[in-house]
Every structure is written in structure tokens, then in C-alpha cells.
Amino acid sequence: MAEIGPRSGINPFGKLSYLVIDDFESFRLSMRQMLRSCGADNIELVSHAAPAVQYCTYNHVDVVLCDYNLGEGRNGQHILEELRHKKLLRRSSLFLMVTAETSKEMVMGAREYQPDGYLTKPINRAMLEKRLGSLIEQRNALLPINREIDRENYPEAISLCLQMLPKQPRYKTWLMKTLGDLYFQLGDMAHAIKVYDDVLAQRELSWARLGKCKILLANRSYDDAVRGLRELIESHPDYMEAYDLLAEGLKRQGRLPQAQQALQKAIEHSPNALLRQKHLAELAASNQDMDTASDAWRRTVDLGTYSIHDSSEHYLALSQTLSDLSEGNTEPESASQANEALSILGKMEKRFSNEDGIETRSRVIQCRIHAGQGRQQEAEKILATVKGEFNSLEDISPDAGLDYAKTLFRLGHQGEAKSFLVDLAQRFAANPDILAKIEALLDEPVGFRQKLQARTLNRDGIKAFESGQLDAAAQAFSKALSIVPDHAALNLNLIQVYLKQSESSPTPGTLLDKCRQLISHLDTLPEQHRQYRRYTALRRKLEGMNR
Question: Is there a domain that residue 509 lies in?
Fold first, then answer.
């Protein structure tokens, strides 16, 4: 086999541009010398993340050789994450992570953003030439395909893949994987699944199994997708993409606790993926598992320190979660959570000081924190400073508006809160997601612990009703309504119980009067509310009984 390098007359290194990122000057100079001896010429050296990203912003780089540990500040994973996010690397560019560290946490974290390879220190010329030479050879062979993908000309990229398959059998795996991805991008599920089935018929490859499960999810074959992903994880427990897709499949099945468990398992293997921590925090909060949510938001905030994905929303979510946990409880642990929430808001105000409205968002949450710790006077004082800023709805984001209404409810300003939400609903009448959040807040304008209690009583009531225990059902629903009297579904649930009881009661009129009182409580229920059709059906039924 011919030697790769300048002496053979074949110099694949020479035509490419290189960026070496390392905080030690001696290593940078050593790498430059080794690259030059391999035939490279266009080599840039930088010591840290900021100049590296800046250089890639204004210059095309073919090969990045980046040390993982760059001292204080951003590391190699953060650089790769930012370059991928900003699309500063072409498909044909190579990114090699250079490291003396081989911990699982480091490797798993870096692998989330798909480096093209790893080089372990110490590095010598022979190792560099062999490893990088092989990657450059593959890069050059596949360059026409990657160029078309960068241009988003997927049909042409598919055509080139099909042409190359018989000519370049050594790259068959890459070509088949790329074909499956391209068909999926175009929405051609039939061809995509055929690619994966052809691969799996010859050999069990994790990426092909994942691709097939992805298509099953897209085709709404949720059971088959979830089953396939569980099997994939069992055989490849370090395959992070499978956990993410499994969580998505379980969510679509409505199995949110199991989706949360899937992400928690993934995080045990790879704890440094910010977006997965964020996803876990959101899932845990929807499952009312606020302890897990606070831990995941805390980790998200920490990971964001040097990440391109850092956001004030993460700080707001953490402080909101801690506020919910501490509300109505002055025990030492709750007081500590309240103080942590205030500290997080202070850090957020400094970190995102140039962001419009950040101080207002912070003060809204501070109101709830103080009120939850019994400091009502302090809460009202802060609330007075923000009310004027919410008078004009046009400048308010839906999240900020919902948070403000939540604070009004918590401080006992029910009328103001409801009026504000009606105005907010009119402004976002065409957005079903926001309307659903407004409904949820109107139904349950109470603290986290009260909400949990009401939901538990509602579940108990439904279980009792389904088993024919009508008295127990009526008692559970009544207790829940004492906590959240405006909850539409609970009111309707209790009406159904009373109607059922009236069928065998010697005094049905008393029960029907109770039904009429409950139904009148929902007279202002908006038509877009998800319980509206059920409300109108029960109201008509009661009106028919009047006659």
C-alpha cells in the first residue's frame, strides 16, 4: 500500500485548512510541526474557545483538532456544541477531540455532538498521519455527497449515494446510513424503512435499528417503536439517542412517568447533556415530581455556564420550581429552597442584564417566594412595582403573562387574575397551546401541594365511581372542589355522580338541585375549553329534567 504523505507524491493533507485548539503553546507548536511534516500548510493555532469560534465564523476549516480540557471556561465539548449549533462546520469538515482524559463522563458528553474521532495524548507523527489520513481519505471520497447535503439538495445527494454504493463498498455503512437519513428528511418513509430493513437483514446495527424505530414513531406505530427501542437499549445501554427516542415514544403513548424514567436512565450514563437535562426537568414537572424537576433544572443551569444553550428561561424555571416546593412551608428545608430561588434570580439578573423584561420576570417570582414564606407585606410591596408593567398586554410574552396571573392568584387577587387571563386568552385566541395553559391555571389557581391533593382526590373519585361506590366518589369530588372550586372537570364529575345517585334516591329533587348549582357555577366557561362540550351536554340533560 502506498504511503500517505508528501514523499509518495500524494498529499491529501496539503489541500486542507486546519485549526488547532489547545491551551498549551508547546502542544500547539508540536501539532503544527507534525501536521507540516505530513504535508499540511494552512494551519491556524488558537488557545481557547472564543478565538476558535470567531475564527470558524469567518473562515472555512476542513480539520479541527481540539483539546478537550482547555483550562478555565469552555472545554472542547462546548466548542463542538457551539460549532454544530451555529452550523459553522460543513458536513465535510472533520472535528477530532484531542484528550489525555478518557473518563466515561467526558467521552459520553463529547459523543453527544458527534466528533469524527478521538486522539489520545501523547500523540506522535505516525499516529496522527495514520488516524487523520484515514479520515481525510474518507472525507475526500464522500465530498460530493456532503456538498449536496450542505446545499440541502437531498434528491441529488441520494442519487450520488446510490451511484457510489457499488463503486465504494468500503463506505457502504456510511452510505446506507446517509441514505436512510436523507429519505427520512424528504418524508419518503417507504424507501427509508427499506434501507434499514436491508441493513438489518444482513447485520444487527444499532443505527439501523434506531432509524427503523424513528420511522415507526413517525408512522404512529408507537407500540412497535417502543418495543424496538427497549430491545436496542438492552443490547446497547450506552446508545443515548435510543433513550431520547424511547422517551418521545412513551410521551406519545401518554406514558409520561415511564418517559421520565427513560431520560433518568440516560442521564446516569451521560450526565453532561444540557438539552436532555432540560427535557427531564420539563417531563418531571409535568409528572408533578418537583424534586426531580428541581435537580434537573439545577443541573441545566450549571451546564449552561459555558454552553451556547444557556438561557434565562432555565433560571426562571429553577426558581419557579423551588418556589413551588417551598410554598406554604416554613420548615428549614423549605426556607432553604426559598432562599436558593431568590439567589438564582439574583444570578439571573446579573447574567442576563441586557435582556428586556428580565427584572420584571424576576420580581413576579419573588412575590410568590415571599408570600409562600408568609412574608405577605414584602410580596405585596414587590407586586405594586410590577403591576404597571403588565397594563399593556401587547408587550408581554405568554409565559410572562401566565406567571404574572399565577402570582396574582397566590397573593389573593383572584378577580384581577381572572380578568387578566381573559384578556390574555383573547390575545392568543388562535394558539391552542397557550389557551390550554390558561385553562389549566383557571381550573387550578392554587399552589403545587394543593394541586397535588386535588388531583389525588379526583383520581380517588373516578376510581370509586367506576367501581360503583357513589357515596365515596361524591365525597372525594366534593373535597377536591373545596380546594379548586372552579375546576370544570371536577364540577362535571360530581354532577355525574349526583345524577347517578338520583336514579335510585327516594328524594331525587335534592340531588338535582345540587347538580343545578354546580352547572350554574360553570356558566362563564369559554367555548374553547376542552370540557365545554361535556358541560353543554350535561346542562341540556338537566334542563330536560326540569321539564
Answer: yes
Mean pLDDT (the chain) is 91
Report which of 22, 31, 95, 29 is spatially closest to residue 63, judged by C-alpha positions: 95
Rounded CA-CA distance 116/71 in Å is 23
Of 415 and 4, more confident = 415
Distance in angstroms (rounded) separating the CA atoms of residues 81 and 5: 32
Separation of alpha carbons 308 and 75, rounded Å: 12
- Which of the listed residues 99, 117, 148 is the one where a domain comes to its end? 148
Domain boundaries, position 427: 392-445
Q: Within its chain, how far is the Cα of 510 from the centroid?
A: 51
Task: Please check whether residues 45 and 140 belong to one and the same domain.
Answer: yes
User: For residue 144, is it within any domain?
Assistant: yes
How many domains does the structure of the chain reveal?
Answer: 3
Query: What's the rounded mean pLDDT across residues 131-139?
Result: 94
Q: How far is CA 464 from CA 450, 471, 477, in A?
A: 21, 8, 10
Phi, psi of 108 (to 5 degrees): -65, -40
Backbone angles phi, psi at 38, to 5 degrees: -85, -10
Is the pLDDT assigned to residue 7 strictly greater than 60? no
Alpha-carbon span 84 to 98, nearest angstrom? 18
Question: Is residue 124 assigned to a domain?
Answer: yes
Examine residue 465 and state whether it is found in any structural domain, yes or no.
Answer: yes
pTM of the prediction? 0.85
- For residues 82 and 106, membership in a common domain is answered with yes
Which distant-in-sequence residues (6+ apart) come within 8 Å of 70 by Cβ? 21, 22, 23, 47, 48, 49, 76
Q: What is the DSSP string of 41-97?
A: -EEEEESSHHHHHHHHHHS--SEEEEES--SSS--HHHHHHHHHHTT-S-TT-EEEE
Residues 35 and 85 in one domain: yes
472 SS3 class: helix
Q: Rounded mean pLDDT of 278-293? A: 94
Residues 454 and 506 in one domain: yes
The grid coordinates of residue 221 equal: 406505530
What was the pLDDT predicted at 3?
40
Looking at residues 196-213, what average pLDDT do you find? 96
- Among residues 412, 403, 402, 404, the alpha carbon closest in space to that of 388 is found at 404
Query: What are the helix and strand counts (H, E) for the chain?
Result: 26, 5
pLDDT at 547 over 60: no
CATH of residue 491: 1.25.40.10
The three three-digit cell numbers of residue 253, written as one number: 403513548
Together in a domain, 437 and 536: no
pLDDT, tens digit, for every residue of 395-441? 788 999 999 999 999 999 988 998 888 888 888 888 988 988 898 88
- The answer to whether residues 459 and 442 touch, using CB atoms and an 8 Å cutoff, is no
Q: Which of 445, 475, 507 is the last residue of a domain?
A: 445
Same domain for 536 and 406: no
> 224-228: long-range contacts (C-beta < 8 A, 24 or more apart)?
225/249, 226/250, 226/253
Examine the domain organization and report whether 29 and 91 are in the same domain. Answer: yes
Q: Is the domain of 411 the same as that of 538?
A: no
